[in-house]
Amino acid sequence: MGQDERHSGATLAAGEAVTKARPAARLLGEGPVPIWSMPSSTLLRRALTRAGVAELASGAPVPGQGLLLLRADHVYDAALITQLARAPGVLLLRAEDRVPVAAHLPPGTGAAALDAAAAAL
Length: 121
Prior knowledge:
This protein has helices at 40-50, 78-85, 111-120, and strands at residues 4-7, 10-13, 24-28, 54-55, 67-71, 91-94, 100-105. By secondary structure, the protein is an alpha/beta fold. The longest helix is centred in the middle third of the chain and has 11 residues, at 40-50.
């Protein structure tokens, strides 16, 4: 990936090398407006399942596993979720205001950094 790569109205900020190891995922919040009569978190969980990513309700991922933090009030293209799952160290920003909406924390990220990243989203 280049310095910044644009996709579906969002920006993938450059991070570490793309990997095939699948991270776990944690959804943050809930979208107030249903999409196709479903909560946005339901659509996000479907995209995560297609990407081979398991949801982690609480706690830290297993050692050696990265963690996707995703705001559930944002709508993601399923292909973007798949690419984000393969790119540790990436921060996804909303294009219109550059507000962070998702992050892929690499394996070995400490609990304090994980909590700080979740609070920033």
